[in-house]
């Protein structure tokens, strides 16, 4: 598994969807841009509808609501997680990552370009607030 790395500072939503769909960042960015979705739009990391729309466009179903995070063990086999929550001007923002559980174990695909390792298992270091289940 080779995680997609975001090529723009604010491209975590595009990269997360690319990780789920098995596409490159450039491929996913082209699809997103054709749909009027751009990494430079801060709504991409402050509104869940953009990633939902990108996934639905490719036939991938997601949970209708954000589900509060309770534990790593309680997560479904695939989910979009919101981490690094913060507020700017009274508006919530976060960083998108992808949680995957398989027969080889669980990990988080984190597209941040500054990380030494983008396949993360340092679960105690991540503080998810909620998740969106991704159905196969």
Automatic annotation (TrEMBL):
Please tell me the species this chain comes from.
Neptuniibacter caesariensis
Report which superkingdom the organism of origin falls in.
Answer: Bacteria
Per its record, how is this protein called by name? Peptidase C39 domain-containing protein
């Amino acid at each position: 598994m080779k995680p997609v790395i975001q090529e723009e500072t604010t491209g975590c939503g595009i990269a997360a969807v690319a990780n789920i769909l098995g596409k490159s960042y450039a491929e996913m960015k082209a699809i997103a841009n054709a749909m009027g979705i751009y990494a430079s739009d801060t709504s991409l990391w402050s509104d869940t509808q953009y990633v939902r729309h990108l996934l639905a466009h490719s036939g991938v179903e997601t949970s209708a609501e954000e589900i509060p995070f309770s534990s790593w063990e309680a997560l479904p086999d695939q989910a979009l997680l919101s981490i690094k929550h913060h507020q700017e001007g009274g508006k919530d923002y976060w960083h998108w990552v992808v949680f995957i559980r398989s027969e080889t174990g669980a990990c988080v695909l984190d597209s941040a370009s500054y990380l030494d390792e983008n396949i993360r298992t340092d679960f105690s270091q991540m503080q998810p607030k909620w998740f969106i289940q991704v159905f196969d």
